[in-house]
Amino acid sequence: MVSSWRRTSSLSAAATVVAAAAALLVSVAFAVPPATPATPAAAAVGATPSVPAGPLDIAQLGAKGDGKSDSTPFILQAWKNATIVIPPGNYLTGALLLEGPCTSDIIIRLDGNLLGTGDLNAYKTNNWIEVQHVNNFAINGHGIIDGQGPLVWSQNQCNKNYNCKILPNSLVIDFSTNVTVRGITLLNSKFFHLNLFNCKNVLIEKVNITAPGNSPNTDGIHFGDSTNITISSTTIATGDDCISVGPGSKMIRVNGVRCGPGHGISDEKDVEDIIITNCTLKGTTNGLRIKSYEDSKSQLKATKFLYDGVTMDNVSYPIIIDQKYCPNNICSRSGTSKVAVTDIVFKNIVGTSATPEAVTLNCANNLPCQGVQLHNVDLKYAGIGNTTIAVCKNVAGKTSNVAKELACL
Question: Where does the secretion signal sit in this chain (predicted)?
Fold first, then answer.
């Protein structure tokens, strides 16, 4: 996870806080300007729209599902109507900017597959499919949004330098309300698979997100400055965070999610009211993790988190709070923190750990973590020796029904 780029525009890495739970040939990107409302006179005479009203099948408009022909202009043409239908087939596209404001419900029915071109010149921003300023938007179906990340992953240098060139996110939804993403598959994104910014009332349900475990920065779902987000019955296996909760997000509910491989379930900067329940993490490099950059310059907080009913299957560091996070040693080490971590509850967390440290609470001496609770936690190191340990520094809280070796509070 590279938290400096959680938003569609770059965030300062120094100001970013992460609380963690984790992949052809079009040279021109097209954009559609917002529709201009008809004048009263035109409306009175019943002006004829430029395209038929109602659902539009992009194949009927001329798109070819051969995986080679550019389907970009046909999707942009269909966007002018209330429903876009992607029929069975493989449709190659460059950047798609789908802008509102829209006066009616918008639905994309994905029955076929969208392929993101490997020509990076086709993306004028850091996004492939971007939906903006839409109320009552839904994308559903059983098709695939395939970022074709293997074509470009070798060009990702973000693990070495914050000021790297960002590869395109696959599906980005910004400044939108009442959003549903259901049933689709997101595959091999070049960067993040699904990225939401400044959205309200979002349901993500029965979605599959897949990329190899070694694919760089292919977070499954990320959102920032968003409110009332529900993620349900979704399977995520990526090379980075399965779910990352970004800056300014509140009222987050995650239920029935299967995660792994990947880095776990994460959160960032001024994040409040997070409930994660009935989830399974398998083989991830972290489990439920709250982390903050050691060189953060802003006064930030992560508060009111509940993790309840999570099963770990060979997960490294199943429970971890780290106020001294410094990935790849590319941040400055101040030794202190400006990030307040308070009221964090880990409850009914069971399973196996791939590391002897099953619980790691590493808080700053100048700003200790407060109100951390462990209840009904049963985690066992599955490796040789079977010695399970907990490491706790500068943290205040309480435990109940926790194995003696994990009760470090």
Answer: 1-31
CA angle 108, 111, 112 (to 5 degrees): 110
Average of per-residue pLDDT across 245-268: 84
β-bridge mates for residue 244, sequence order: 222, 266
Q: How far apart are CA 281 and CA 155, in angstroms?
A: 29
Q: Which of 240, 241, 270, 322 is catalytic?
A: 240
Exposed e or buried b per residue across 53-88, where buried means at least 16 C-beta atoms within 10 angstroms of its C-beta = eeebbbbebebbbeeebbbbbbbbbbbebbbbbbbe
pLDDT digits (tens, 9 = 90+) for 219-243: 999 999 999 999 999 999 998 899 9
Strand partners, 68: none
- Pairing between strand 243-245 and 258-259? unpaired
User: Which tokens in the block code for residue 226?
Assistant: 């968003």
Q: Is 142 a catalytic residue?
A: no
- Residue 402 contacts residue 371 (beta carbons within 8 Å): no
What would the pLDDT profile of 74-89 be if each residue is shown by its tens digit?
999 999 888 899 999 9
In angstroms, rounded to a whole number, what is the distance separating the alpha carbons of residues 1 and 23?
13
pTM of the model: 0.83
User: At residue 289, what is the residue type?
Assistant: R
Tell me how far apart the alpha carbons of residues 20 and 292 are, in angstroms, rounded to a whole number.
9
Mark whether 263 is an active-site residue.
yes
DSSP 261-329: SSS-EEEESSEEEEEEEEEEEES-S-SEEEEEETT--S-EEEEEEEEEEEEEEEESSSEEEEEEE-GGG
d(CA 31, CA 9): 18
**Which of the residues 70, 263, 267, 295 is marked catalytic?**
263
**Contact of 333 with 292, CB cutoff 8 Å:** no
Domains and CATH numbers, the chain: 23-218 (2.160.20.10)
Give pLDDT, residue 46.
32
